[in-house]
Amino acid sequence: MATVIYFSRIGENLIHGEKQFLLKGNTAQVGEKIAQKLQVPAYEIKPIVDFPLSYDEAVIQAKMERDKQSFPEYQAFPTELRIDKHLFLGFPNWCGSFPRVIASVLTRELGTGTVIHPFCTHEGSGMGNSMKELQRLCPASIVKEGLPIRGSRIEKSELAITHWLTHYYWNQ
Length: 172
Description:
Layout: E1 2-6, E2 11-15, E3 18-22, H1 26-38, E4 42-44, H2 55-68, E5 86-92, H3 100-109, E6 115-122, H4 130-137, E7 142-143, E8 147-150, H5 158-170
Parallel strand pairs: 1-4, 1-5, 5-6, 6-7, 6-8
Antiparallel strand pairs: 2-3
Helix pairs in contact: 1-5
């Protein structure tokens, strides 16, 4: 059984180098597409302290959390959420890696032997250092090849998602 969890942020985001206000975050959109293709529910990671809607202020908070290597608190997942063997883990690439709330979830929720299928949204930096950091943070898990998708190309991501799922999940 597979589980899809993701962290995403609404508010100002960079799209083609310009700030645009998003009512639904890019990573949420990708996470929902993956969950639909897998026919499983998607669960959003919600920090206790929300990120600011302002892009510049969100970057300041993300850098502060990264520099302090913090483990931000997050709202409890619904009781029906179980991370079984395959975890599809989504996040935006911030400051070269995943937001620190992802580290919080992984250190508290992940079991031994979980296969992590990471996906991220970005605006030019791909997966950044997130693959190395996931492997370091989750040594008892198997981290599969990640799927980076430009936030500005979410509407055209169906083929990339299907190809990634076919290559790294369905054909195991």
